[in-house]
Amino acid sequence: MRNWAVALSGGAAARVGREVATALDQWGYRPKDDQPQQVVELLLRSAAQDGGRRVSLHLADDEDRNQVMLLALSHRQDMPTGDDDQVLRDAEHMRALAALGPRDVGVETTPDGRRWWAGLDLPHPGRVHELDERRPRMVVRGPGKLEGPPIPA
Questions:
Q1: Inter-residue contact 16 to 72 (CB < 8 Å)
Q2: Residue of 66 and 9 predicted with greater confidence
């Protein structure tokens, strides 16, 4: 799991997007394009528009399913729920996020601020290779199918 506290400056979303791409690469994920960076940037811009005192981004993965979850939190504790302008803006952001192709997207208002998230399915080719490399060291060699038990001397 990785976390970033993001200052609400103009280039912060792009910088964090690149850092997320680097983290995913270090974890062995190989996205075929810059989808994770685009999703990060849109999540951070959405959270920043809430007007909170800061924005944070959280990245977690599920190696068994080759999935990652991105969550941006606006940290605005007095966020009003359900006004018409907010609902329209949320719908626009959700459509834009969905167009980037994540598995799922969402937003919710909580006492800690608003949470914007996206789940991505990403290829993880290094993981299968690592398992194949470990297998010979872990398997104890026993008699083969056509071999009989050892003959006592």
A1: no
A2: 66
